Amino acid sequence: MRILILRLGAFGDIIHTLPLAADLAAAGHEVGWCCEDRWAPLLEDSPVIQRLHRLPRRRLRDATRSAADRLTALTEVMHSLRIPGYDVVIDAQGLGKSAALALASGVALRIGHAPPRARELSWLASHRRVSTRAVHVIDQQRALASALACPVLGPWRFPLPTWADQRAWADSVLAALGLDRPWILNVGAGWPTKVWPEERQGEFLALLKNRGLPALVVWGSPGEKAAAERVIARAGYGVLAPDADLPRLAGLLARGAVVVSGDTGPLHLALAVGTPSVGLFGPVPAERNGPRGRAHRTLQAPGAAWERRDVTKVDMGAISADQVFRAAWDAVGETLLSPSDGMGH
Fold it and tell me: From its phi and psi, is residue 157 left (phi > 0), alpha (psi between -120 and 50) or beta?
C-alpha cells in the first residue's frame, strides 16, 4: 500500500516518528511524508521515504503576503498530496492542522491517535483511532502501525540519509579545530524551560578543561550562538561550532564522543546517528522523550510538567555540572566497553 505520514514538525518529533516509517517500509509499504519545509533535510534521501511533501511554513505565515498567495501555497501542497494516490494517511501529529491535511488529502482510510494523545478534535478526522499504553513517544508513534496489522518488532530504527558529504565536512572542520572525538554541548532548546542554565553549562565546560577533554559547543540560532559564546567565555574553554545546517549538524554529532543537551532536536538526532548522549529534562518526563539504550543517560529536573515558558516553575539548575559529567563519563565508558550502534528499543 501507499501510505502518507503527516508529521509536520518539529525537529525532535520528526526523529521520533522515523521508526514508524521504518516499520511500514519493512512491512513492504510505500511511504510518503508531509512536513514543514525547514525539516525536510532530515528526510530527503531517506532510504524508506519515496515521496516528500513540503509545507512552506514561512510563505504560509508571512503576513506581508496576500491571502491569495498563501491560499495558493496551501492549495499546491494539498494537490501534491492527492497526486500519488495514497491508500492510507497516518496523522502522527494529532493536531487540528494535520487533521485538516488528512481530510484534504482525499485518502480513503485515515488513521490517527485516539485522545488524549490526539488534541484539538483531530481524532474526528480519523477512521481508525489508535490507543496505546506505551510511555515513550517513539513507541506511541510505532503503535500507529497496529491499525494496519503491521508488526512492530525489534529496536528503534532511524532511516536517516547517509549524509556522506556532510560527515566528510565535519571531519575536515574538526581536524582544522584540533578536535578529536569532542564532548559536545548543545546550549539551547525550543522551550526556555528546557534550557540548562548558562552558569551550569560553564561549570560543565570547566570540568572538561580540568580533565583535558575536548569540548565543542553547538548552537542553532543567533540567540543560541550568543549564549554559546557567553558560556565559553565563562569557562575560558571550549570551541564554538561553525554555523551548520541540519545535515552538517548530524555530521558533527556523529563524530562526537558524547552529546549533552536539553530535550530538543540535537539530543534526539544524536540518538539517531548513534552517538552516546546525556539528556537533561525538565517540563517533559525523560521516560517519555529521553534517549534509551546502554550508551545514553537522562537526568530529570524538578518542576511543573509541560510548562513551556515560565522558567521559575522548572528548576533546570538543580541538575549539577558534576552530575552531568559523571553521566557523560559513564555513557562514553559504556560505549568503549561494549560498542553498539547507540540505538534504543
Answer: beta
Provide the number of structural domains found in the chain.
2
Tell me which residue of 172, 175, 161, 140 sits closest to 273, measured CA to CA.
161
| 100 and 30 together in one domain | yes
Dihedral sign of CA atoms 280, 246, 217, 195 in order: negative
314 — phi, psi (to 5°)? -135, 120
Sheet containing 109-113: which strands, arranged edge to edge? 51-55, 30-36, 2-6, 88-91, 109-113, 128-130
Q: Do 242 and 143 share a structural domain?
A: no
Q: Domain with 333 in it: what CATH number?
A: 3.40.50.2000
Averaged pLDDT, 225-239: 98
Q: In this predicted model, what pLDDT tens digit does every residue of 5-47 receive, in sequence order?
A: 999 999 999 999 999 999 999 999 999 999 999 999 999 999 9
pLDDT tens string 135-156 = 999 999 999 999 999 988 899 9
Phi, psi of 115 (to 5 degrees): -70, 150
Supply the range of the domain harboring residue 211.
Answer: 164-337
